[in-house]
Amino acid sequence: MNQQPPAGAESQEATAQALREQYESGTTVAELVATSGLSYGTVINRLHAAGTVMRTSWQTRRMRDGSARRSLAAHLRRLYEHEGATLTELAAAGSVTRRAARRLLIEAGGTPRTTQQTLRIRSAATTARRMKLAESLRARYEAGATVPDLAAECSYSVGTVYRLLHQAGTRMRPKHHHGPARTPRKRP
Fold first, then answer.
1. Please, what's the b/e burial string for 16-51 (b: 16 or more CB within 10 A of its CB; e: otherwise)?
2. 174 phi and psi, to 5 degrees?
3. Do residues 43 and 30 lie in contact, with contact meaning Cβ atoms separated by under 8 Å?
4. Cβ atoms of residues 118 and 84 within 8 Å
5. CB 135, CB 168: distance < 8 Å
6. Of 156, 150, 154, which is closest to residue 138 (Cα–Cα)?
7. Radius of gyration over alpha carbons of the chain, in Å?
8. What Å distances lie between residue 61 and 58, 153, 176, CA to CA?
9. Of 89, 101, 115, 132, which has the most beta carbons under 10 Å away?
């Protein structure tokens, strides 16, 4: 048998979503109770049903205070643009929801990135760090360090150290020859 949802279920869902949007924009639970005509418990239950992340009172005050909000928005934008933080990381840094973090980012003049753009930014940063490590390993290898010693020093596998050395364009010594790299002989 098909059971029909109770009358008004769709309006409750719409109300729950509307309550969530108002709450995430800075409205307090007490203000939602006053404007909606619902009881405190009903408002709380509908916010939870809509998946709302609840704030503490100090987070609400900080969010509603204009200068603190602008300061937080500017801080989140710096994290987002200069350090490549994600919206989830911004939400954690600002003790707000992802949606509120996105809104603050836009208020500060930032433009949200796509997932692909964020991955490219992070990949570029990782590649730069990896090349810096590869150059450092190359300098130590050319000064006489062995690949197993380098692997032990930086807690990488021997294969990873070989890959990094090759990426840095290192001229490899013959096996079992320790010391600086020799210059190749010219054939007659």
1. beebbebbbebbebeebbeeeebeeebbbebbeebe
2. -65, 155
3. no
4. yes
5. yes
6. 150
7. 28
8. 5, 50, 68
9. 101
Look-up: residue for tokens 């197993």? 148
* Tokens of residue 122, six digits: 């992070």
Torsion over CA: 126, 127, 131, 137 (sign): positive
Residue scoring higher pLDDT (63 or 126): 126
Residue-wise pLDDT for 54-82, tens only, equals 888 777 776 666 777 788 888 899 888 88
> For 93-111, how does the pLDDT look when each residue is reduced to its tens digit (9 = 90+)?
887 888 888 988 998 899 8
In a 13 Å sphere around the CA of 143, the CA atoms on its Cβ side amount to 8
State the pTM of this model: 0.41
Taking a C-beta distance cutoff of 8 angstroms, is the pair 46, 16 a contact? Answer: yes
The single-letter code of the amino acid at 91 is A
- 3 pLDDT higher than 60: no
AA letter at 31: E
Q: How many helices (H) and strands (E) does the chain have?
A: 10, 0
Nearest to 151 by CA among 141, 161, 143, 142: 161
- What value does the mean pLDDT of the chain take? 82
Q: Looking at the predicted structure, is the pLDDT value of residue 45 above 90?
A: yes
